[in-house]
Structure formats: C-alpha cells, structure tokens
C-alpha cells in the first residue's frame, strides 16, 4: 500500500472549502450507508437515471476504506489547490473534474463493454486536484506512507512523480481490463478523466509558468546564497525573456546585480524597467515606494529621465504635490539636455502655480524659455508667464 499523507508545502490560509467538502462527504456517507434505497437514488445509476445523480454520485462512497482514502487525498492535495486558486475556482475545478471523470468512464464503458455501468465516488474530482497540484508544485516533496507485508515506513517523492505514478497505474489497469472486456471495480477511466480536466485547468490558468518562475527564483536564491550574484541575476533574466512584463522579476534581477559594483549599471537598467512597468500597470504605490528607497543610495542622474518624469506625473495625479515637484526638479536639472528635461521644467512651473508659489513658478517658466528656446515647452512657458502677468 502507498498512501500520500502530507506535502512539504506550507498552507497560507485555512482551506475552508476543502474542510467543508470533507465534512459533507463524511456526513452523506453516514446517512446513505444504512439506507440502500437512498443510495441507489443518489449514485450514478443508468438503470434508474435522474439528472441529479451527475452531482450526487460525487459524494457517494462504497465503504469506509473508499471514503477514508479519498478524504486523505482530498486533504493532502485539495487544501493546497484551494490555497492557490481561491474558493470559487477551486470548487469549479473540483466539480468539473468530477463531471469529466464520469463522462470518460461512461464513454470507455460503451467502447469496451458495450454498456454503461453505474458509478460513485469523489476519486475523479480528486484526481483533477492531484493533476493541478503536480503541475503547479511539481518539485514539492510529497510524504508517502508505505505498507508492504510486515514492513512499513515513509519516504518522499516529488509531486510530479506521484501524479505520474497514479496516472500510469490508471492507464495500465483501465486499458488492461478494457482490452480484455472485463469490468473493473475501480473507475480507472474516471480517474483519467478527472486528471485530464485538472491538467486542462492548470494550463488554462498558466500554472506551469508560475511553477517555472518559482523554480527560477529558488535557483537564483541558491546561487545568491553562494555569493554567485551575477549568475543569480542571469537566471532571473532567463525567466524575464519568457515574462518581460513582470516588474517583480526585474526587481529581483536588479537586486542581485547591485551586489557587485561592476554590475550596478545592469541593476539600473532593471530598476528602470520595473518602475516603468509598475506605472503602466497602475501600480503607482509600488513604484513610489521603490523610488523612495532607491534614492537612499542612488543618484537620480543614473535613471531614465522619461520614466522619472512619468513617476512625477503619477505622484502629481495622486495628490503628492511636494514629492512630484522634487522629482520634476531632479529631471529638469540633471537631464537638461533631454526632451523630458524641458517637459519636467514646464510641468514644475505649472505645479508651482497650482501650489500658489507664483515667484518660483515665474523663475521656472523663464528657465524653460532660456534653456529650450525653440521647443514647444518654451511657447507654453511664454503663455504661463503671460497668465502670471495678468494675475
């Protein structure tokens, strides 16, 4: 006997839906086991079919061993799947895997046995959870209890190999009994159907990408812990090639590059990308917080003036007028040769007028006219001065 009993992944929240499903399965078993007539109405029974059986059969179990085994699997894998997907997606996966399991089992019965047998159990639902868990957390160790004759103990196997083992076993038994035209007491094709539904959900939700990102992060952290910071950054950059729009990846790469003086210029490139992405994704607070921390040990001249100016505009729109004014001044003074320098100076003048500092606004309008006399910003600065004069 082989029985998974836990994983090495820590839960981030209480899996209320999983606990509820376990409680519901146990309660229904307690009610239906003493009542054969009720059980016949609730299992999937082609001889006396009712539409509700498509759902109620997912909560039926043949006996204590069937129930206990399924509930252990449901807790071990379902709790973590719920942790990742949230309650409603988790329940949608659970029940769609169960329906897919019954559909494939019925189809296989028609092909191999020329009839449709009844069925019951949550195994198809649970195999969907196993498939999704093994796709998202493929290298997470799963703790297995084994009992072989009089020997017993535990060992660990990566989740992807646990899922592969059970899937291969169902393929072997399913086609073995099917090709021999022998009925099996286990719904192997139901397990296969649920497993395939779980895989479909995993790929639709792009969970393999998340798994690869986690593994890249772990490898980068291992390299960094060994002091190989540049290789750690390169590992993150490989993931950036697949997901260039993720600001956190750029942030991680920048952090590793900053550990060596000779690669700090590469860090600045990634900080620029991270700041720009946060702003484009309307995650201004992340950009503001990172900029404030970067200014403790960086020179504003190192950064892209266009991105800094966008940052100032975002702070102005957020009502952080003083902070915006400081950033505009940085761009105007430190990047005077650039187009963003002229735009920052003009916006600073407008902002100072808005803040009631007309004298300083007049000085900045004059600065725009003197430094960038042939620019569109200079024309706007003349208009600003004229309005101040009329005021």
What does the model show?
- The chain is mainly alpha-helical and 391 residues long.
- The chain has three domains: 2-205, Rhomboid-like fold; 207-297, Serine Threonine Protein Phosphatase 5, Tetratricopeptide repeat (Alpha Horseshoe), CATH 1.25.40.10; 299-391, Serine Threonine Protein Phosphatase 5, Tetratricopeptide repeat, CATH 1.25.40.10.
- 70% of the residues lie in helices and 6% in strands.
- The chain is built from 18 helices and three strands.
- It has helices at residues 16-32, 36-42, 53-56, 64-85, 87-113, 123-136, 159-179, 188-204, 207-225, 229-242, 247-257, 264-280, 284-294, 305-317, 321-334, 339-354, 358-371, 376-390, and strands at 2-7, 141-148, 151-158.
- The chain has a three-stranded antiparallel β-sheet.
- A hairpin with a 2-residue loop joins strand 2 and strand 3 (151-158).
- Helix 12 (264-280) runs parallel beside helix 14 (305-317).
- It is elongated, with a radius of gyration of 31 Å.
- The termini are far apart.
